[in-house]
């Protein structure tokens, strides 16, 4: 995590609560309640800014080229569309980074993975209800999208979850 960090899709802020004291953290989420809960958990002394914003929309000018790191933990599988559609969110996250900055996160995969019986049922229900949209998300499609937008990509698959890191955004 860089000294200036943006977390997109903040959840409850559980992990950010443990960030170093000298880091300036900004939060972005479409849900104002999530922003409020996460900011409260992390604490005013660490929070620089919060922004209620759709990750598919271009970020405000003062949020571009601003961060050393951006995280997207367990967000991509909740975004609508296939990985080609989600590429817009990944590109926007890259635009928020300083040159040489790093995007990192995790997502639950739906394709080319082996979910257990409970996981299969849960995935079916969540995808049907629109909570998840990851039926066609695979490690290969995620890697391809990241590679299109970043100079250096690392992706590790652990069971049904992909952990990723992408450095040096291609800003063209």
TrEMBL record:
InterPro entries: Methyltransf_12, MeTrfase_VrtF, SAM-dependent_MTases_sf. Pfam families: Methyltransf_12. One of its GO terms (molecular function) is methyltransferase activity. Residues 6-103 form the Methyltransferase type domain. GO terms for biological process: methylation. Keywords: Methyltransferase, Transferase. This is SAM-dependent methyltransferase. The lineage of its organism: Bacteria, Pseudomonadati, Pseudomonadota, Gammaproteobacteria, Enterobacterales.
């Amino acid at each position: 995590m860089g000294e200036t960090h943006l977390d997109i899709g903040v959840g409850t802020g559980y992990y950010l609560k443990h960030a170093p004291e000298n880091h300036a953290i900004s939060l972005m989420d479409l849900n104002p309640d999530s922003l409020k809960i996460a900011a409260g958990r992390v604490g005013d002394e660490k929070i620089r800014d919060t922004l209620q914003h759709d990750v598919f929309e271009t970020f405000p000018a003062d949020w571009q080229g601003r961060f050393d790191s951006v995280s997207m933990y367990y967000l991509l599988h909740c975004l609508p569309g296939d990985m080609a559609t989600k590429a817009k969110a990944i590109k926007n996250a890259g635009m928020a980074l300083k040159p040489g900055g790093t995007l990192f996160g995790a997502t639950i995969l739906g394709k080319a993975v082996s979910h257990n019986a409970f996981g299969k049922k849960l995935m079916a229900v969540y995808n049907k209800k629109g909570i998840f949209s990851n039926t066609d998300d695979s490690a290969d499609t995620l890697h391809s999208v990241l590679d299109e937008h970043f100079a250096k990509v690392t992706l590790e698959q652990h069971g049904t979850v992909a952990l990723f890191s992408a450095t040096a955004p291609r800003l063209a």
